[in-house]
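Sequence in, structure out. Go.
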Amino acid sequence: MTRDAPGPAGLPLFGNLFDFGGGDRLTSMVRLRQQYGDIVRLRIMGRTLHIVSHPDDIKYVLQDNNRNYVKGRALGKAKVFLGEGLLTSEGELWRRQRRLAQPAFHRQHIERFAATMTDATADLLQRWEPLAKAGQPINVADQMMRLTLDIVSRTLFSTGLTAAEIDSVAAAMPFILRETDRRIRAPLEIREHLPLPSNRRFQTNLRTLDAIVYRIIADRRRLGGDRDDLLGLLMAARDEETGAAMDDKQLRDEAMTIFLAGHETTANNLAWTWTLLSQHPDGRRRLQAELDQVLRGRTPDAADMPRLIYTRMVLDESLRLYPPAWAIARQTTMPDQVGGYDIPANSGIIMSSYVVHRHPAFWCNAEAFDPERFAPERIKTQHRYAYFPFGGGPRLCIGNSFALMESALILAMISQRYDLNLWEGHPVVPETAFTLRPLQGVMVTLHVR
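Output:
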């Protein structure tokens, strides 16, 4: 006997489009879980969609039966931007690329980038000095975007991008991400094929990014020489079965994926962290006390990471409350059962870390900022998939160690020197675009410690 998951009845033709497709998707998904349970069935313009919110079921989809759950339609839309990079590719192509890319993200390689990360942060702190003296508010969300873009360009391409190229990427990336998200959410695909201003702007911005990446790849091939950056490691990688290297198109796709994952998500995590620390000064004081004790005023490095325990706890709690990768999408290839409910073939699956990270069955006082949840002794009792800011299973984010070290180094260096206080009256509102970012940025003032 078939057993469909519960869900709202919906409207003729549109189905549940207005239950889920509106502007505040975070509130909608939390409400749907509260009302219907951990698996909610929706119908949107003829397509079946399930929102899955129990850690056991998320483990089943991402890990236990992962081969039945592909990226599908949602991230297929992102291929226009990201191509066949690790985030979007499937099957044997993904497995081949993962094998090729994995050595570049080995811990020893990642730790070598710590000095690059702290050098870029030191440059930022120097630029902040006159702003702090003048009491001038800054948009720290924008500042973190530019900093992490600088870092990812230096670690990916050694010499980094020019100031003009950073400005071009910083201007192009937000629009591309918003437009990609709009295309993913659109119930009909016809709009993206029309000669609309938004489509022309999307193509113009995409050509700008392509020109930068392909120019750097061409320069590297022309000049030759091994460089110990991510691009050099990717270019040197050889498939262990065939001996084949990545061609320019595949290098472009992986570089574009690293551009996105290497700066957008980390910058958003830091923007939310500064927001939370400003709202919770006791947590900020404890963070600074740890930094004073461990670092004693010096610049942190990779070797300090195991001792910056509370620093990591703060970042984990920020990732819990405001996970930049706020939802993971999959699509079934064959019919299945999840949580006792029938899931038809070609059904969309949404697993929202934002929703699960606030699930009252797994998090006490879930809306509160409490880094103590991630104390080492308490982590052992967590369900592995009650907290999944970097996904899980075979497709766990390959750059998670890079992102966590980068975030910790930046948080430590800035917190040693400044208190960042929210600018009174400026709203900090989540925007569910391709990533979870502050819609109007985060305006703060800098106060020298």
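Check: Residues 248-279 form the longest helix (32 residues). The mean pLDDT is 90.
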